């Protein structure tokens, strides 16, 4: 059932990209990767992913700004966004949820397999 399900991964760490690209593609997902703010918005608009996994630390850019922009745009506001980061503070979590994130996952606390399972559950919920 995962064929044709598109995930936009917004991540700037090449090692993380490789790990998650391999895992999601093995599980039958189509993964689109953006490593900066501009590409994240562009790919969300044009590729219309089923779900966005958003890192908060993107070089000199802030993933919360990406989230804010996605949720303000009527063309991308309905796409579920999961914050996927190692940045773990209550203040940041609260801000992410206020901006419209549906989940907040700390990378160091989960395995790639657990992420795929969680993403599957989220996509089923939003279909």
Question: How do the helices and strands line up, and which of them pair or pack?
Answer:
Layout: E1 6-10, H1 14-26, E2 30-34, H2 37-47, E3 51-54, E4 57-58, E5 61-62, H3 63-72, E6 81-85, H4 90-99, E7 103-106, H5 112-126
Parallel strand pairs: 1-2, 1-3, 3-6, 6-7
Antiparallel strand pairs: 4-5
Helix pairs in contact: 2-3
Dominant shape: globular
Looking at how many chains there are and whether they match, the oligomeric state comes to: single chain
Q: Compute the number of strand runs.
A: 7
- What percentage of amino acids are in beta strands? 15-25%
In the CATH scheme, the class would be Alpha Beta
- Supply the number of helical segments: 5
Q: State the helical fraction.
A: 40-55%
Average predicted local confidence, pLDDT = 93
Tally of separate domains: 1
CATH topology annotation: Rossmann fold
The whole-angstrom Rg is 13 Å
End-to-end distance, in Å?
12 Å
Order of helices and strands: EHEHEEEHEHEH
CATH architecture: 3-Layer(aba) Sandwich
Keywords, please?
two-stranded antiparallel sheet, single chain, 127 residues, Rossmann fold, 5-stranded parallel β-sheet, alpha/beta
What can you see in these coordinates?
This protein has helices spanning 14-26, 37-47, 63-72, 90-99, 112-126; strands at 6-10, 30-34, 51-54, 57-58, 61-62, 81-85, 103-106. The chain is of the alpha/beta class. The chain has one domain: Response regulator (Rossmann fold, 3-Layer(aba) Sandwich). The strands form two sheets. Strands 2-1-3-6-7 form a five-stranded parallel beta sheet, with helices on both faces. It has a two-stranded antiparallel sheet with strand order 4-5. The two termini are 12 Å apart.
């Amino acid at each position: 059932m995962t064929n044709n399900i598109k995930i936009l991964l917004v991540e700037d760490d090449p090692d993380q990209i490789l790990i998650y690209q391999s895992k999601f593609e093995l599980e039958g997902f189509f993964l689109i990767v953006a490593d900066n703010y501009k590409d994240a918005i562009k790919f969300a608009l044009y590729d219309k992913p089923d779900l966005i996994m958003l890192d908060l630390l993107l070089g000199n850019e802030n993933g919360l700004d990406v989230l804010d922009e996605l949720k303000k745009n009527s063309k991308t506001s309905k796409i579920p966004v999961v914050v996927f980061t190692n940045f773990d503070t209550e203040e940041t979590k609260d801000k992410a949820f206020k901006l419209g994130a549906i989940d907040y996952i700390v990378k160091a606390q989960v395995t790639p397999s657990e992420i795929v399972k969680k993403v599957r559950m989220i996509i089923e919920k939003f279909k």
